[in-house]
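Record type: monomer structure entry
Structure origin: computed from sequence
Chain ID: A
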Amino acid sequence: MKLTVVGCSGSFPSPDSPCSSYLVEADGYRLVLDLGNGALGALQNHIGLYDVDAVALSHLHADHCVDLCVYFVARNYRQEGCPEPLPVYGPEGTPGRLARAYDMPEQPGMSGVFEFHTLTPGTFALGPLTVTAIRVNHPVEAYAFRIEHGGRSLVYSGDTGECPELIELARDCDFFLCEAAFTDGKETVRSIHLNGREAGEHAAAAGARRLVLTHIPPWTDPQRNLRDAEAAFRGPVELAKAGATYEI
Protein backbone atom coordinates (compact mmCIF):
# COMPACT_ATOMS: atom_id res chain seq x y z
CA MET A 1 0.00 0.00 0.00
CA LYS A 2 0.99 3.59 -0.52
CA LEU A 3 -0.17 6.25 1.94
CA THR A 4 -0.14 9.95 1.06
CA VAL A 5 -0.83 12.59 3.70
CA VAL A 6 -3.09 15.01 1.85
CA GLY A 7 -3.80 17.06 4.98
CA CYS A 8 -3.03 16.56 8.66
CA SER A 9 -3.91 19.77 10.51
CA GLY A 10 -6.34 19.37 13.39
CA SER A 11 -9.47 21.49 13.87
CA PHE A 12 -8.66 24.08 11.18
CA PRO A 13 -6.13 24.36 8.33
CA SER A 14 -2.64 25.57 9.16
CA PRO A 15 -0.48 27.65 6.81
CA ASP A 16 1.23 24.40 5.86
CA SER A 17 -1.58 21.88 5.66
CA PRO A 18 -5.27 21.34 5.01
CA CYS A 19 -7.31 19.45 7.56
CA SER A 20 -7.46 15.67 7.79
CA SER A 21 -7.30 13.68 4.57
CA TYR A 22 -5.26 10.61 3.63
CA LEU A 23 -4.96 8.78 0.33
CA VAL A 24 -4.45 5.01 0.39
CA GLU A 25 -3.50 3.31 -2.89
CA ALA A 26 -3.10 -0.37 -3.75
CA ASP A 27 -3.25 -2.19 -7.09
CA GLY A 28 -4.56 0.93 -8.80
CA TYR A 29 -7.40 1.41 -6.28
CA ARG A 30 -7.62 4.79 -4.50
CA LEU A 31 -9.34 5.23 -1.16
CA VAL A 32 -9.56 8.63 0.54
CA LEU A 33 -9.86 8.62 4.34
CA ASP A 34 -11.59 11.86 5.40
CA LEU A 35 -11.84 15.04 3.35
CA GLY A 36 -11.53 18.01 5.69
CA ASN A 37 -11.24 21.74 5.06
CA GLY A 38 -9.00 22.49 2.08
CA ALA A 39 -8.20 18.87 1.32
CA LEU A 40 -9.78 18.63 -2.13
CA GLY A 41 -7.38 21.20 -3.56
CA ALA A 42 -4.35 19.43 -2.14
CA LEU A 43 -5.62 16.02 -3.25
CA GLN A 44 -5.24 17.15 -6.86
CA ASN A 45 -1.47 17.39 -6.33
CA HIS A 46 -1.45 13.60 -6.02
CA ILE A 47 -4.21 12.17 -8.22
CA GLY A 48 -6.71 13.40 -10.77
CA LEU A 49 -9.87 15.05 -9.51
CA TYR A 50 -12.05 12.14 -10.67
CA ASP A 51 -9.66 9.28 -9.90
CA VAL A 52 -11.00 8.54 -6.40
CA ASP A 53 -12.62 5.10 -6.05
CA ALA A 54 -14.17 5.53 -2.59
CA VAL A 55 -14.21 7.85 0.43
CA ALA A 56 -14.45 6.74 4.06
CA LEU A 57 -15.28 9.34 6.73
CA SER A 58 -14.15 8.74 10.29
CA HIS A 59 -16.81 11.15 11.61
CA LEU A 60 -18.85 14.18 10.68
CA HIS A 61 -16.95 17.08 12.22
CA ALA A 62 -16.20 19.65 9.53
CA ASP A 63 -12.42 19.22 9.66
CA HIS A 64 -12.92 15.63 8.47
CA CYS A 65 -15.79 15.81 6.00
CA VAL A 66 -16.72 19.30 4.79
CA ASP A 67 -14.76 19.22 1.51
CA LEU A 68 -17.19 16.60 0.26
CA CYS A 69 -19.47 19.60 -0.33
CA VAL A 70 -17.06 21.10 -2.85
CA TYR A 71 -16.34 17.66 -4.28
CA PHE A 72 -20.08 17.42 -4.93
CA VAL A 73 -19.80 20.60 -7.03
CA ALA A 74 -16.77 19.30 -8.93
CA ARG A 75 -18.49 16.04 -9.81
CA ASN A 76 -22.06 17.27 -10.31
CA TYR A 77 -21.11 20.12 -12.65
CA ARG A 78 -18.25 18.47 -14.54
CA GLN A 79 -18.29 19.73 -18.13
CA GLU A 80 -18.29 16.18 -19.51
CA GLY A 81 -21.15 15.18 -17.23
CA CYS A 82 -21.31 13.79 -13.73
CA PRO A 83 -19.30 10.58 -13.23
CA GLU A 84 -20.89 7.46 -11.79
CA PRO A 85 -21.89 7.91 -8.12
CA LEU A 86 -18.87 7.70 -5.84
CA PRO A 87 -19.12 5.31 -2.86
CA VAL A 88 -18.97 7.26 0.41
CA TYR A 89 -18.84 5.38 3.72
CA GLY A 90 -19.70 7.40 6.81
CA PRO A 91 -21.51 7.38 10.15
CA GLU A 92 -25.29 7.33 10.34
CA GLY A 93 -26.69 10.64 9.10
CA THR A 94 -23.89 11.40 6.63
CA PRO A 95 -26.19 12.27 3.67
CA GLY A 96 -28.24 14.71 5.76
CA ARG A 97 -25.18 16.28 7.34
CA LEU A 98 -23.64 17.06 3.96
CA ALA A 99 -26.93 18.31 2.50
CA ARG A 100 -27.41 20.71 5.42
CA ALA A 101 -23.83 21.94 5.09
CA TYR A 102 -24.53 22.73 1.44
CA ASP A 103 -27.95 24.25 2.26
CA MET A 104 -29.85 21.87 0.03
CA PRO A 105 -32.89 19.65 0.68
CA GLU A 106 -31.94 16.42 2.41
CA GLN A 107 -33.99 14.52 -0.19
CA PRO A 108 -32.57 13.70 -2.63
CA GLY A 109 -29.55 15.59 -1.28
CA MET A 110 -26.28 14.50 -2.87
CA SER A 111 -27.42 10.94 -3.59
CA GLY A 112 -27.11 11.33 -7.36
CA VAL A 113 -23.43 12.19 -7.03
CA PHE A 114 -22.45 10.03 -4.04
CA GLU A 115 -23.51 6.47 -3.23
CA PHE A 116 -23.83 6.56 0.56
CA HIS A 117 -23.10 3.58 2.82
CA THR A 118 -23.62 3.70 6.60
CA LEU A 119 -20.64 2.56 8.64
CA THR A 120 -21.09 0.02 11.39
CA PRO A 121 -18.37 -1.81 13.34
CA GLY A 122 -17.06 -4.67 11.27
CA THR A 123 -14.96 -5.69 8.29
CA PHE A 124 -15.68 -5.11 4.62
CA ALA A 125 -13.85 -5.03 1.28
CA LEU A 126 -13.10 -1.94 -0.79
CA GLY A 127 -11.46 -3.03 -4.02
CA PRO A 128 -8.33 -4.97 -3.04
CA LEU A 129 -8.37 -3.52 0.50
CA THR A 130 -9.79 -5.17 3.61
CA VAL A 131 -11.17 -2.49 5.93
CA THR A 132 -12.10 -2.97 9.57
CA ALA A 133 -14.00 -0.16 11.31
CA ILE A 134 -14.50 0.26 15.06
CA ARG A 135 -16.17 2.92 17.19
CA VAL A 136 -13.76 5.15 19.10
CA ASN A 137 -14.01 7.58 22.01
CA HIS A 138 -15.22 10.95 20.66
CA PRO A 139 -18.25 13.15 21.42
CA VAL A 140 -19.93 12.15 18.14
CA GLU A 141 -20.17 8.79 16.39
CA ALA A 142 -16.60 8.25 15.22
CA TYR A 143 -14.60 5.41 13.71
CA ALA A 144 -11.03 4.23 13.41
CA PHE A 145 -9.98 2.10 10.44
CA ARG A 146 -7.59 -0.79 9.94
CA ILE A 147 -6.72 -1.27 6.29
CA GLU A 148 -4.97 -4.45 5.15
CA HIS A 149 -3.51 -5.53 1.85
CA GLY A 150 -0.84 -8.02 0.85
CA GLY A 151 -0.05 -8.94 4.44
CA ARG A 152 0.54 -5.33 5.50
CA SER A 153 -1.58 -3.17 7.77
CA LEU A 154 -2.32 0.51 8.28
CA VAL A 155 -4.38 1.82 11.20
CA TYR A 156 -5.89 5.31 11.25
CA SER A 157 -7.26 6.44 14.61
CA GLY A 158 -9.60 9.17 13.38
CA ASP A 159 -10.39 11.42 16.36
CA THR A 160 -10.46 9.75 19.75
CA GLY A 161 -9.67 10.02 23.42
CA GLU A 162 -8.20 7.08 25.34
CA CYS A 163 -9.60 3.95 23.73
CA PRO A 164 -8.77 0.30 24.55
CA GLU A 165 -10.59 -0.75 21.39
CA LEU A 166 -8.14 1.30 19.32
CA ILE A 167 -5.25 -0.58 20.92
CA GLU A 168 -6.79 -3.87 19.83
CA LEU A 169 -7.44 -2.57 16.32
CA ALA A 170 -3.80 -1.48 16.04
CA ARG A 171 -2.43 -4.77 17.41
CA ASP A 172 0.87 -5.57 15.61
CA CYS A 173 0.09 -3.14 12.76
CA ASP A 174 2.86 -2.03 10.44
CA PHE A 175 1.88 1.64 10.43
CA PHE A 176 -0.14 3.50 13.08
CA LEU A 177 -1.42 6.92 12.00
CA CYS A 178 -2.62 8.28 15.33
CA GLU A 179 -4.07 11.60 16.34
CA ALA A 180 -2.27 13.68 19.00
CA ALA A 181 -4.25 16.90 19.19
CA PHE A 182 -3.81 17.66 22.89
CA THR A 183 -0.73 18.52 24.94
CA ASP A 184 0.05 16.40 27.98
CA GLY A 185 -0.64 18.43 31.13
CA LYS A 186 -2.37 21.26 29.28
CA GLU A 187 -5.74 19.97 28.08
CA THR A 188 -7.46 17.81 30.67
CA VAL A 189 -10.83 17.18 29.00
CA ARG A 190 -11.37 13.45 28.55
CA SER A 191 -12.93 11.47 25.72
CA ILE A 192 -12.13 13.91 22.93
CA HIS A 193 -8.49 13.68 21.81
CA LEU A 194 -5.21 12.00 22.65
CA ASN A 195 -2.02 13.85 23.52
CA GLY A 196 1.45 12.86 22.37
CA ARG A 197 2.15 10.73 25.42
CA GLU A 198 -1.13 8.88 25.09
CA ALA A 199 -0.59 8.26 21.38
CA GLY A 200 2.81 6.74 22.24
CA GLU A 201 1.25 4.63 24.98
CA HIS A 202 -1.45 3.34 22.64
CA ALA A 203 1.18 2.43 20.03
CA ALA A 204 3.33 0.68 22.63
CA ALA A 205 0.41 -1.28 24.06
CA ALA A 206 -0.64 -2.34 20.56
CA GLY A 207 2.84 -3.44 19.55
CA ALA A 208 2.69 -1.19 16.48
CA ARG A 209 5.84 -1.15 14.37
CA ARG A 210 5.75 2.53 13.43
CA LEU A 211 3.91 5.58 14.77
CA VAL A 212 3.09 8.75 12.86
CA LEU A 213 1.38 11.55 14.81
CA THR A 214 -1.34 13.49 13.05
CA HIS A 215 -4.27 15.89 13.59
CA ILE A 216 -2.12 18.34 15.54
CA PRO A 217 -3.82 21.78 15.58
CA PRO A 218 -1.83 24.92 14.77
CA TRP A 219 -1.96 26.00 18.44
CA THR A 220 -0.32 22.77 19.66
CA ASP A 221 3.48 22.40 19.74
CA PRO A 222 4.18 19.38 17.50
CA GLN A 223 7.74 18.97 18.77
CA ARG A 224 6.49 18.68 22.35
CA ASN A 225 4.02 15.99 21.28
CA LEU A 226 6.73 14.20 19.34
CA ARG A 227 9.03 14.12 22.39
CA ASP A 228 6.19 12.89 24.60
CA ALA A 229 5.35 10.10 22.15
CA GLU A 230 9.00 9.06 21.84
CA ALA A 231 9.24 8.77 25.62
CA ALA A 232 6.32 6.31 25.63
CA PHE A 233 7.02 4.30 22.47
CA ARG A 234 10.36 2.71 21.59
CA GLY A 235 9.67 2.30 17.89
CA PRO A 236 10.13 4.95 15.19
CA VAL A 237 7.95 8.04 15.66
CA GLU A 238 7.50 11.02 13.39
CA LEU A 239 5.12 13.85 12.65
CA ALA A 240 2.74 13.67 9.70
CA LYS A 241 3.40 16.35 7.09
CA ALA A 242 1.19 17.33 4.18
CA GLY A 243 2.52 15.78 0.99
CA ALA A 244 4.48 13.03 2.72
CA THR A 245 4.20 9.55 1.21
CA TYR A 246 4.86 6.14 2.75
CA GLU A 247 5.17 2.65 1.34
CA ILE A 248 3.55 0.19 3.73
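Annotation 1: The longest helix spans residues 196-206.
Annotation 2: The chain has a mean pLDDT of 98.
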